[in-house]
Amino acid sequence: MEGVDGDGRVAESDVDAHEERRKLSISDLGIQRTPATEQTLFGKSRTWASLKASEIIYLAMAFISLIASMGLSIERIISLQKGSSDYTFALFLLWTTIMCMFHVLEGVKSEKPCDLLVFVITSVAVLCYVIFNYATKPNDMLKLARMIIGIVFAPILIGYGLRLAWNYYVSKQLIFRTVQSANVDLQKMCELIFVMSSLLKFDVQLGVSTYILYLDKGLTDLSLDEIIIIVCGVLATIAWVILGFLAMRYEKYELVYVFFVTSIIEPILIIYNLTRYSGSKFQALLIAVYTCGVIAIVVRLITIYCMYRVMNNFGHGLGMKGYY
Fold first, then answer.
1. Helix (H/G/I), strand (E/B), else coil: 39
2. What's the CA gap between 211 and 235, in Å, rounded?
3. Range(s) of the domain holding residue 263
């Protein structure tokens, strides 16, 4: 028998050949592994190839709905008078739609339940406003179209969005790939960083929304004080959020201390604006101004607390692991 010597033993050459075949890797066979993650501005994210068909369909439906809403908002901004409350709300909806795109994309690709929850909550709030706004002027065909789009897409986006958020919270697959360890404590620390990232994006959404809603009469009749407050407030909010991302990424205590000290700027400006707000004849705008202002302050406090907990976990290199 070939390969067997006189004593019935397998020849050494055959054994060596067998071992060589066992050492062959997938790359040796010319098969390229498809990477499961990639780097983005906000850290590690799943590749498009790694997404399930249901997730891609969900993203497609979300973006179809959001793009349609964006188009209607832009049309309203072009056609409406710049001194009307409807103009202010059109600006608000346009900004909210843009941020919702970031939330749903980051929520699915980066498996961040908090971003998906923010997207779901925002979708519910916008749907309620759209229905209420149409009820005030039932003869407006654009408002009717916007309401129909919301009613058709919202139940699916909200329901399946909650399901995806729960699945990501339970599985924690991307967190495991980021930490590259089965250590539960490290995974919880990484999860906290993911939550902090979602809160920072939600904070900038609420902050800018508050300043937009403060424009009771659109972009007309703005005093110099109002212009300074709005411009400085928006810039301060954006700078504060960027500072938070940098503090987490590089695990710098000095940046965190600056983050804490400057965190009071937005709440002070929001409270100042609310106390000076003259009110609006448009009931929906009046409700939105105070609701958004209060939620923005609450989210800012939660973000500060979350950053404090993240700071206590510095030294494990999770900031860099999350981005590289």
1. strand
2. 11
3. 37-321
